[in-house]
Amino acid sequence: MLGKAASLGGDVAGVLLGSGVEGLAHQAGIYGAATVYVADDARLEAPLPQPRVDAIAQLVGEQGIETVLFAQSILAADIAAGLAARLDAGLNWQLTDIAADSGTLVGKQSALGDSVVVDVGWKTTPRIGLFRSGAFDPVERATGQTQIQTFEPELQEFSLAAEMVEQAHAEESGPSIEDANVIVAGGRGLGEPEKFGLLEELAKALGGAVAATRAVVDAGWYPYSTQVGQTGKSVSPTLYIACGISGAIQHKVGMQSSKTIVAINKDPNAPIFEFADLGVVGDLHAIVPKLTELVRARKS
Amino acid sequence: MTVRPVDYPPPFAPSEAIAAPTDPVSQRIEVGVLIVGAGPAGLACAIRLGQLLEDSPETAERLGEVPVAVVEKGKSPGSHLLSGAVVNPRALRRLFRGSPLLDGVPTYGEVHGEAVYLLTKGASLRIPPPPTMRNHGNWIVSVSQLGRFLAEQAEAGGAAVLPETDAQKLLVADGRVQGIRTGDKGLGRDGTPLGAHELGSDIVAKVTVLAEGTQGHLTGAAVDRFGLEGEQPQIWALGVKEVWKVPRPLRHVVHTMGWPLRKRARYGEFGGSFIYPMGDDMVSLGFVAGLEYRDVEFSVHDVLQEFKTHRLVRKILAGGERIAWGAKTITEGGFHALPKRFHAPGLLLAGESAGLVNVPTLKGIHYAVESGIMAAEAAFRSLQRGESPARPGAFASYDDELRASYVLRDLREVRNMRQVFDKGFLVGGALASAMTVTKGKLPPKEFGSEANADRTLIRTDRAARYPKPDGKLTFDKLSSVFLSGNRTRDDQPSHIRIQRRVPRELAELWVNMCPAQVYELGAEDDDGTVHVDVNPSNCVQCGAITAKGGRLTPPEGGSGPEYTLT
Amino acid sequence: MKIAVCVKEVPDATAHKRIDPGTKRLDRSGEGALNAFDANAVEEALRLKDATGDGEVVVVSMGPERALNSLRKALAMGADRAVLVADAAAAGSDLLATSLTLAKALEREQPDLVLFGQQSSDSDGAVLWAAVAERLRRPVISQVAELTLEGGSLTGKRQTEFGYDTIRAPLPAVVAVADSINEPRYPSLKGIMGAKSKPQETVSLADLGVDAGQAGEQGSRTEVLALSDPPPRGEIRKLEDDGTAAEQIVAFLADKRLI
């Protein structure tokens, strides 16, 4: 996103808040920040939003910053919204792109389950934008000196009222299907419940989660918590690999906004081939294990 | 092959739906008059009661905190209502008796003209509308929208309308009906309670009115319990309909007969289609076929898709887009299948549940409203000082009024018309015309009919002629179920009672019959029987399975389709 | 203890959601329903009330008059009171205008705890509580999958991309609950029948001391400029396995920098 911001013209700065984080400032510079503002403070160690609102608001006021952009995360969303209320600033979210237009900025927002694209604007400055993760690819700057400026954050009492008792560690077991970036899903074409083992192996190799269709959950092959579809969960991972799934609309509406869809099914007329980015007509029992092997080989 | 659905009865006995109250008295929910079903009959009853109680505060007081309650198994009133529909407005006029509310009834205008066609595969022959099909002055409505409107009026009149509430059992004690028991919510597939679980309740009432529509669950149990069976078995048709947005307005009401149904008596295919304009930019079209058909490959949904490929229909739908779909059975037995009495101690039967549908004229909504009004008046009379709903014969006046009214007069007049079509389209047609012209006096013989499930099954190559769904004009069942708004919670007990291991022919009958793809062929055994796999969450509760060897029971309240335009 | 739950009526899920190209706002003309995620918040409030043995649960919302129907569902579940800010001038409010109005309505109630649901099904946004907490100047914890109350402080297990944080904050506070926190109860028949007679208050912006210029489109700092169709999915490729399908899939994924 730093790269994207740089492409809009004007001055671009990165902001780094935390404890013991000064070392990371140079990296922000490599990716497009001309200046990096750093507030290194023990009170900013825990990933809590409200102290960060104080720090960024302070920076915006002191440096006359007109636009503040965030990449989506649970923490970023809380900061962005709190900041908007603090600065009386407009916040546009679910952005996939932004462009300069007649002296102002216009964002592209994906709305209503990705069924419509909305051009959104900010009526005043400062402007706050929250972008979908993965909206932009990182771009390395060829040259340039990065100016690193530290500042002392002034934090409000109510912002410090919430305290982190215990912070999360990365999970040992894979991500849940809602959080996963990669999902490997299975349907009736698997033939029997044991074949979910093949999908689990592939998911593990890809660092993803396993999901299931209503039909196989109904049959008791996999738990209800993994059901994707109209009456199950809606997911939008970066990659969705559908194995032995016909693609009836009840399933489709739960995963159609996945960024990339790969389908493996031996029925060439399965409806899923109408919307899969890559459709493979073949036997998943042969293809999936081979795929897992190849993915593992690549990773090592 | 002599497979008959009736030889494989479902694991269900009507007595299962009858019980005595079990909740402690202090926990029972007490209402004055309880109405089961928020359709035209039930809501007309609630509205009429509201009018009567407004003028009679002493009676209202005697009925307690909730004088009138209407329970509805759908997500909201209208969610499970589906019909053509062309309505005779006389009963609605009587219900709203000159009040400006009558102008608020949602309609798509009056019928301006009609056309009846006899279709063959490649052609259509316009024939003069039979006397039974004259609709001038009638209103075109969506019965789902009508239901929503009537529910608002019922509530405005003081009734409590309780959607997402399924009536599982009829409470009977001391020889009289005392109310209903609602179903549990939050049970898992195997019946064990889930995180959020709510037990059903006993709702007790002084008078219970059953207005459940086609295949009424409690009505079936009540008829059995109180010996109310009619002379002849009840029979049904299955209707599948769609609503389309169209660029060119349709100017008249259309009915067709003939293709794609087969004429010969051995197929048992009786029915036809309707195409009604809904304003200038929408059209409601559907295909209806009697469930006495015999071919295991017959599928009303697919016949509707095939029907749309006819030149006549293509023209009407050209440039259009399908925006709704639904399916429901229609009670077809007419006069001979009416229950012996429309009441029992503490109980009144109204609307289609009571068999009040006129098949040759395709009308039932105004009978529903009329009977709902009469039921309200009978209930009200029984609640006056010196009278009691529990007194045997307290509701005899309801029967008398119904029989003296145009409702039963109409049904009597056309009483044999449906049955003669067992003889095939041409002979049946001729007999039907004779009946119409003589207002039911000729021919003098009374024609009987078989129950739908008694018919032996045959197999032809019918399925080969169904069009392959193209997603533009013709559609598959699953995407149609999606369009009905069905989002039934998956993790609940199955509400469908059928034998799970049956001869292949019977399984195929069910697979093809069901418009919602609830049944699938499972593993085959050596002896020619197959297992039947069931997907209960697809079910749109049309009721066809009950006519053909199974038994639909109400699932968890709120399940099923969410019709808005049907 | 007084708990306020912020809820919203959204277009019913079966209704085809669309943005009206004329007003550039979400078409809310069809059936409405209580936002499913808000039911979790109402349920959590009721559990806290049940646990402490006393207290009041108020549902607060902003919307047209007919949104009272959806608020009744919360009352049927067991909430005690409903307050609806119904004012034509508030239509078209963005995050800023909405959070201002809600904050004023909440200040009027002075609750010990304010609960929100995880997100709203009609705006893909999951940000309102942070803005409201900022205006109320209270600590906020979001994505709470488990909530416990002890004395005057609450502890929330917060669901993040990396696992669970445990965060503590003193009351009064603002909490947004994750949908995994509980299973909302089914309203009992008695609850449904009793909902109508529970207090339901409709207030205007003026009642809250909110100037019309601070609400609606006037009070919003963002605007909708145009609508367009999403870019087509891009080319769809279909191939038949000739023995090299796995390799071809890997090449495809590598090409897209997915592995």
Describe this structure in words.
The complex is a heterotrimer of chains A (300), B (566) and C (259). Chain A is an alpha/beta fold and 300 residues long. Chain A is built from 8 helices and 14 strands. In chain A, helix 7 (249-255) links the parallel strand 12 (239-243) and strand 13 (260-265). The mean pLDDT of chain A is 89. Chain B is globular and about 65 Å long. Chain B has one domain (25-475): FAD/NAD(P)-binding domain (3-Layer(bba) Sandwich), CATH 3.50.50.60. Chain B is an alpha+beta fold. Chain C is an alpha/beta fold and 259 residues long. In chain C, a hairpin with a 2-residue loop joins strand 7 and strand 8. Chain C is globular, with a radius of gyration of 21 Å. In chain C, 51% of the residues are buried. Chains in contact: A-B, A-C, B-C. Strand 6 (116-122) of chain A pairs antiparallel with strand 12 of chain C, so a sheet runs across the interface.
Task: Provide the descriptors you would attach to this structure in a database record.
heterotrimer, A: 300 residues, alpha/beta, Rossmann fold, 2 domains, five-stranded parallel beta sheet, 14 strands, B: alpha+beta, FAD/NAD(P)-binding domain, seven-stranded mixed beta sheet, 23% strand
